[in-house]
Amino acid sequence: MTDEPARWTQATVYPDMWADPADDPREKSGPGPDGELATLQDFLTGYRLTLRMKCEGLDAEQLARRSVPPSTMSLLGLVRHLAETERDWRGWMGDEPAPAKLYGARDGDFDGAVAEQSVVDAAWRDLEREQEATDAALAAHPDPGARVGKKKIAIRELLVHRIEEYARHCGHADLLRERIDGRVGQ
After folding, report:
1. Cα distances (Å, whole numbers) of residue 148 to 44, 120, 138, 144
2. Which Pfam families would you find in this protein's record (predicted)?
3. Using CA atoms, how far apart are residues 184 and 186, in angstroms rounded to an integer?
4. CA separation, residue 173 to residues 67, 78, 124, 158 (Å)
5. How far is CA 18 from the centre of its chain?
6. pLDDT tens per residue, the chain (186 residues)?
7. Which residues pair with 183 in a beta bridge?
């Protein structure tokens, strides 16, 4: 007897995928976007959708479950962490101090990811708000080579950092989700 869930996927066309192409909101027909900025934004959008998809269909307990002890990482913690990270990135853009932490002390994003629906709902609201605010700040700089903030960081670099952060944590989300209910796929 084991507490490990059986591996499964909803995909029928490509069984190693998360969903069939017709059901995958990341799938687009036709050529990709034109230009560097549009391409970077498209990749970021795809990873944001991937995180959301990895969390869909789970209840508060499952989202808050720390599936790889002794790590404090959970899917809910990742949502909160990425909200915090979006907020931090805006601090790189300006000349004023970084915005206050959303979840308090270091690791508050993961430590406060508890199995309560109100915490889950607040985390998704926080993430959406912080994504919108960061996107709005970046939209003021349509040239990816423009340099901003005290450190004169290029918009391109800020976007690549965001993509990297989401991509890395979507990999974590793959493993966390599989451990929770066995669902697999990219």
Report:
1. 20, 33, 10, 11
2. MST
3. 7
4. 10, 8, 15, 22
5. 16
6. 567 898 889 899 998 888 998 888 888 888 889 999 999 999 999 999 999 999 999 999 999 999 888 899 999 999 999 999 999 888 887 766 777 889 988 889 999 999 999 999 999 999 999 999 999 988 999 999 999 988 899 999 999 999 999 999 999 999 999 999 999 987
7. 8
What are the helix (H) ranges across the chain? Answer: 36-55, 60-64, 75-93, 108-111, 117-139, 155-181
Domains and CATH numbers, the chain: 34-181 (1.20.120.450)
**82 CB neighbour count, 10 Å cutoff:** 24
Q: Is the CB of residue 17 less than 8 Å from the CB of residue 9?
A: yes
Angle in degrees, 0-180, between the axes of helices 117-139 and 155-181, rounded to the nearest 10: 160
How far apart (Å, rounded) are the C-alpha atoms in residues 78 and 113? 9
Cα 118–Cα 123–Cα 126 angle in degrees, nearest 5: 125
The residue to which tokens 């990219």 are assigned:
186
